[in-house]
Amino acid sequence: MANSPPALIAISISTVVMPSSLSKTRKQIAKKRSGEVNALHEKSRDSLRLHKAGVRDLRLQKLAEARSKKEQPIVDRVAYFQERLQEKDGKAVDVATAQDFVKGFISQYDEEYDSLKKARRPGRPGSAREDLLKMKIAALRTEFKNGFVIPDIIKDDNVKLLAEWEGSWARLTSLPWIKISSAGNVRQADFPNKGIN
Question: How far apart are CA 119 and CA 139, in angstroms?
Fold first, then answer.
């Protein structure tokens, strides 16, 4: 390892952290060439294998980022309601309290939106962040009017399941979900796997 070129050292360290097809391919080629990966011909088979593995890693990374971007609002929503329940000693709440929790979730963006609005000079258009927050708040209010998707925090058994949730995506599917509207209507809902605001 001490005689290895710097590129191999960096790859082998990243292999420990998270193995990728590029590092595996690089390792296979290094083994075949007795440690020499730097002296490859531009159009050689090994060079093409390395390029293909690198492109695959980039594609998988982009897919993971897109999936994470879609899943993050759901995780944030569940974490918010889990915290609110911990403040209430981990007990089930009634519909009115659940509605208050939803209103608090929607209003969490109000302060940032107001500060951006005040910072803007009169007559100037809103910043991109301000427009994004405005759309997000409007979408959340519309969702609340029609039925806001939350984990079931009204029944004791479901509250226990939510309290045991440790933040993983896999356990979210086992949580029971409900839709609660601003009018006070509550109905069962499916897991929001298509994403939410």
Answer: 24
81-140 per-position pLDDT tens digit: 999 988 888 788 898 999 999 999 999 988 888 898 888 888 888 888 888 999 999 999
> What contacts 33, CB < 8 A, 6 or more positions away?
46
Cβ-proximal residues to 84 (8 Å cutoff; 6+ apart), any chain: 101, 104, 153
Structural contact between residues 192 and 149, judged by C-beta atoms closer than 8 angstroms: yes
Where does residue 165 rank: exposed (0-12), middle (13-18), buried (19+ CB within 10 A)? middle
Q: Alpha helices of 41-109 — where are they, by DSSP H?
A: 45-87, 95-106
Per the CB < 8 A criterion, the answer to whether 140 and 197 are in contact is: yes
- Cα-based distances in Å from 17 to 30, 53, 59, 63: 19, 18, 19, 19
Helix (H/G/I), strand (E/B), else coil: 34: coil
Q: Are 148 and 184 in contact (CB under 8 A)?
A: no
Q: What is the pTM of this model?
A: 0.65
The span from the CA of 174 to the CA of 114, in Å, is 37
Under a CB-based contact definition with an 8 Å cutoff, are residues 35 and 4 in contact?
yes
Q: What strands lie across the sheet with 148-151, from one edge to the other?
A: 148-151, 177-180, 186-189
pLDDT over 70, % of the chain: 84
